[in-house]
Design a protein that fits this description.
The complex is a heterotrimer.
Chain A: E1 9-18, E2 21-31, E3 36-40, H1 47-55, E4 62-67, E5 70-71, E6 82-85, H2 97-106, H3 112-125, H4 141-153, E7 159-163, H5 171-188, E8 191-196, H6 199-205, E9 208-213, E10 216-221, H7 223-228, H8 233-239, E11 243-245, H9 247-252, E12 260-262, E13 268-270, E14 277-284, E15 288-295, E16 298-305, E17 316-320, E18 327-328
Helix pairs in contact in A: 2-3, 2-4, 3-4
Chain B: H1 8-31, H2 50-57, H3 62-92, H4 98-110, H5 113-127, H6 133-158, H7 162-169, H8 174-203, H9 208-211, H10 218-227, H11 232-256
Helix pairs in contact in B: 2-11, 3-6, 3-8, 3-10, 4-6, 6-8, 7-8, 8-11, 10-11
Chain C: H1 14-24, H2 26-56, E1 59-60, E2 67-68, H3 74-78, H4 82-115, H5 119-134, H6 137-148, H7 153-160, H8 164-172, H9 185-196, H10 198-209, H11 213-221, H12 226-255, H13 259-262, H14 270-278, H15 284-307, H16 310-313
Antiparallel strand pairs in C: 1-2
Helix pairs in contact in C: 1-2, 2-15, 4-9, 4-10, 4-12, 5-10, 7-8, 10-12, 11-12, 12-15, 14-15
The chains are: A alpha+beta, B mainly alpha, C mainly alpha.
Chain lengths: 331, 268, 314
């Protein structure tokens, strides 16, 4: 299959202001067809507003939104061929599971038989065969989530929008659903746009992601890009467990006088080095240990593989690393 | 811990208060069966069922009953439409003047009925509108709006806003969302509001005396009987009918809205 | 599998077009929703209140008995005649007494329902207040006519208890009685309390439910007795709710004209004056001016209630 050159979703200088608050501030964004795209950011960073701009529940104050190349800025939600899995599912409480799933077909005027068949097909897809006659109130959280998923997929949308879909589930269920969503997306080939504040979720599921901060996109790229080469302190802080080094320390460690990030896995401890620090914490992780060195005001984490000697808390050590591991940031 | 258990004194006071509210109404039922015709003698010298037949055959009761039913039905219908519209607007967005609107809805029932009645009476006189069924309905619908509104707005508040968005998201236009999602979820609250409005209108006398002219609703008929009694036991029978006509809708309204929202009628 | 699906679905007719209009301009929908009810309330209700005010500035021609539609303060001046001032004062006194008594009776019910009733009991209490509140006004008044009648249950009970002569003597007192309780001012008072007291219970209960139990426990920890906790913690915290609840009771007593017509010694109250002036007397302007009195009293009452924080409790 050759990749479709037209992006699934495109933002052109899109802003959404609520009074003086710039929830989304002149955002440019391209989401490739068939991508599993994550919007990651703390609450209030604008990621959910962006999702609602795609579905049409918010209107841009400025700029244009395109779905598959077509400007939808002036198209109401019911005519946009994208569907949403809502954060708390928003299932219709007065309908059965089957009626919920078939709702999108009913409002299109599809006849009852075809609605039923298609709803059963979708219920099978989300592994809920036999649940069609129940009410949403009789289902567990995980099951409700699957119903919401089936309901949003029945119209075969150009893109599926998921608003913190796993937030309400417990940890074990969440991990199982992560794998399942990923597999489903591969199988259907539909573009998934996924909003989350959980960096692990974003990194493990998405094939590209945007990190939001204060209404702007702080960085956009593959998970590896964002994780290993954060563009700014905010991204390094929010996405990773990377060490963030202030310019002075970067220079002392042999780099330029700029903010830099340094992954703990790349740092080893040595008796001699350009900078010395005091071991302030040690955490055993199984395959190795994470050792925190305090250098003045800054803490630098290092990784000590299993088998290597673990320094005592309070002892002194120097961080050493390959020069290529130091990633200089823009700000 | 002193706050965990009610003191006997409190229990007695609360119980006595509730008994004070209920016993007089029960007494009405007893009197409907009394054989005593001329006075309100207690205890009744004997019991009989004949007054029900007498009341049934009294020609002067039926037109007021019919008028009351008509007025209550039409007023309720108008109040349901208007009350739901305001509730929908209040739920839809925060707009300038919200507080004023909710005050305006509450006013007809918060101010004494005599003011509403006298105001309408003045207006009919100033604009020269002759009394008719419609002048009664005009008044009743006005103070019934708040009853429907209270019920509807509580349900709107409880209805998860996401379901309306979900409906639009799945391709429904506004009318489909209204019919398939909003109405089924709002239905029982509207019904409850309607029933309470009906009960309120069916029973209303204070405003009605100002807006009815020479016509007689059932409460006006009763008022005349109370001021100048003709056949007391018949009045007793009518009283039971009125109690039943208002009790049933109230109980129904309570059961329609009982989970969670104790608003049914909280603002009569 | 899906790359041929359109990004935008076609418009399917007027319903879709209208939906788009409402989506683009949410204010249009808001205006459409609000216009009918506001038109109704604005024209019918506010219009009538305006007509009431207008009417009260007219006067009546003493010879022809016709309303003279010219602005004058003459009608308002009539309110200050001794007999009319009497009516206003009597009504106000009654409303205050009824409100205070109602608060005393309503408080234990509201307090018990708010703090001790749970589950089924709570529902039962709720229904126990709602049913009398909603049941027919006239029937309730009528029930009291039966109870207070000379040959009624109160006299019967008094005689049974050997208090018959006592009741008789009390009725002879001029301020208290009449030929029976149902024609005495005390009778009027009792029925006012009975009819308008339930309106106080629910707002009071709501206010009491907002007093956190932990505060009472803190008061108990500090060694406050039950009575002290009540006076120093519950009462001050519940006061806005009590005042909020009293608004309805006070206002409705102020305007009631049916009860004094049926139970009592035919002493006149504001409502009754309004009713009689507009009816048999045919003096619409004076009736209107009288109707303005409770409005003014209520405005003052509401201003005081607002000061006491009652609106936050509603």
């Amino acid at each position: 299959m050759t990749p479709d050159p037209t992006p699934a979703v495109e933002f052109r200088a899109v802003s959404r202001h609520f009074g003086a608050v710039r929830a989304v501030d002149s955002v440019d964004l391209t989401i490739a067809e068939g991508a599993f795209f994550a919007m990651l950011g703390p609450s209030g960073s604008g990621k959910t507003t962006c999702l609602r701009l795609i579905s049409g529940f918010e209107k841009p104050s400025a700029g244009h939104i395109l779905i598959h190349g077509q400007d939808v800025s002036d198209v109401p939600p019911n005519r946009r061929n994208v569907n949403t899995v809502f954060q708390d599912y928003a299932l219709f409480p007065h309908m059965t599971v089957r009626e919920n799933v078939a709702y999108g077909l009913m409002v299109k005027g599809v006849d009852r038989r075809r609605r039923r068949d298609k709803a059963e097909e979708l219920l099978a897809l989300v592994k809920l065969q036999g649940y069609g006659d129940r009410r949403p109130g009789q289902l567990s959280g995980g099951q409700r989530q699957r119903v919401a998923l089936a309901r949003a997929l029945i119209n075969e949308p150009r893109a599926l929008l998921l608003d913190e879909p796993l937030g309400a589930l417990d940890l074990k269920l969440r991990e199982a659903m992560q794998d399942e969503l990923k597999a489903l997306q591969k199988r259907l080939g539909i573009t998934f746009v996924f909003v989350t504040h959980d960096q692990h979720e974003a990194l493990s599921m998405a094939d590209s992601l945007a990190v939001f901060n204060e209404g702007k996109i702080a960085q956009i790229g593959t998970p590896e890009d964002v994780y290993t080469r954060p563009k700014s302190r905010f991204v390094a802080d929010f996405v990773g467990s990377s060490n963030v080094l202030p310019p002075k320390l970067t220079r002392a460690l042999g780099g330029p006088a700029a903010w830099a990030s340094l992954r703990p896995e790349s740092v080893r401890l040595a008796a001699v080095g350009p900078v010395r620090g005091t071991v302030s914490a040690v955490r055993y992780l199984g395959a190795g240990s994470r050792v925190v060195l305090r250098i003045g005001e800054v803490e630098v984490a290092a990784y000590v593989p299993a088998g290597d000697p673990i320094p005592d808390i309070g002892s002194e050590a120097s961080p050493v690393f390959a020069p290529a591991a130091l990633h200089v940031m823009e700000g | 811990m002193p706050s965990e258990r009610a003191s006997p004194g409190l229990k007695i006071a609360a119980g006595a208060g509730l008994a004070f509210l209920h016993l007089p109404i029960l007494l009405i039922f007893l009197y409907a069966f009394t054989t005593e015709e001329k006075s309100y003698q207690f205890p009744p010298p004997g019991l009989t069922l004949k007054w029900f037949a007498v009341a049934w055959n009294r020609a002067d009761i039926w037109p007021p009953l019919w008028l009351s039913l008509q007025v209550a039905a039409v007023s309720t219908l108008i109040a349901m439409v208007l009350g739901t519209l305001v509730a929908a607007a209040m739920a839809q967005s925060r707009f300038f003047g919200r507080e004023q609107v909710s005050l305006l809805i509450l006013l007809p029932i918060a101010l004494p009925g005599v003011i509403t009645g006298m105001a309408l009476r003045s207006a009919f006189s100033v604009v020269d509108i002759p009394f008719s069924v419609w002048t009664i309905i005009l008044g009743h619908a006005t103070f019934c709006i708040v009853i429907v509104y209270n019920n509807a707005v509580a349900r709107f508040r409880r209805l998860h806003g996401g379901v309306l968005e979900a409906s639009a998201d799945l391709g429904a236009n506004g009318f489909q969302t209204f019919g398939y999602v909003l109405l089924p979820n709002l239905g029982s609250a509207l019904l409850a509001g309607g029933m309470l409005a009906f009960a309120l209108s069916f029973d209303e006398v204070i405003v009605t005396t100002f807006t009815a002219g020479q016509q007689s609703t059932l409460p006006i008929w009763m008022l005349t009987e109370l001021v100048r009694p003709r056949q007391r036991p018949v009045t007793n029978v009518v009283a039971i009918v009125v109690v039943a006509m208002t009790f049933l809708p109230i109980l129904a309204a309570y059961y329609l809205t009982r989970d969670g929202e104790h608003t049914a009628g909280a603002g009569k | 599998m899906l790359s041929d699906a359109p990004a935008v679905l076609p418009e399917r007719g007027p319903a879709d077009r209208l939906t788009a209009v409402f989506w683009r301009h949410p204010r249009v929908l808001l205006v459409l929703l609000l216009t009918p009810p506001l038109l109704w309330l604005g024209v019918v209700y506010l219009g009538s209140l305006a007509a009431l005010l207008l009417q009260s500035f007219y006067s009546i021609d003493e010879f022809s008995g016709l309303v003279v539609p010219e602005f004058t303060l003459k009608t308002y001046a009539e309110l200050f005649r001794a007999q009319n001032l009497d009516i206003i004062l009597r009504t106000l006194t009654m409303a205050v007494l009824v409100t205070l008594t109602s608060a005393v009776i309503a408080f234990p019910i509201a307090y018990f329902a708010a703090r001790f009733a749970r589950g089924r009991w709570k529902a039962l209490f709720y229904l126990g207040v709602m049913l009398p509140l909603w049941s027919s006004y006239l029937v309730k008044v009528y029930a009291w006519k039966l109870i207070l009648a000379r040959e009624g249950i109160v006299t019967w009970l008094a005689e049974r208890a050997g208090a018959g002569p006592l009741l008789g003597r009390a009725l002879d007192e001029q301020w208290f009685g009449g030929s029976s309780l149902s024609t005495s001012p005390v009778g009027t008072f009792i029925v006012f309390v009975y009819i308008w007291m339930p309106y106080m219970i629910l707002p009071m209960q709501a206010a009491l439910e907002r007093v956190p139990g932990s505060m009472l426990e803190a008061a108990a920890d500090l060694g406050a007795s039950r009575g002290q906790a009540f006076r120093t913690v519950i009462l001050p915290l519940a006061l806005p709710g009590i005042v909020a609840g009293s608004i309805f009771t006070f206002s409705l007593t102020l305007g009631d004209y049916i009860i004094p017509q049926i139970i009592g010694n035919s002493a006149r109250f504001i409502g009754l004056a309004v009713y009689q002036f507009q009816g048999t007397a045919g003096n619409l302007p004076l009736a209107a001016a009288f109707a303005v009195v409770p409005i003014v009293i209520m405005l003052v009452y509401l201003a005081i209630a607002k000061r006491l924080g009652a609106f936050d409790a509603l």
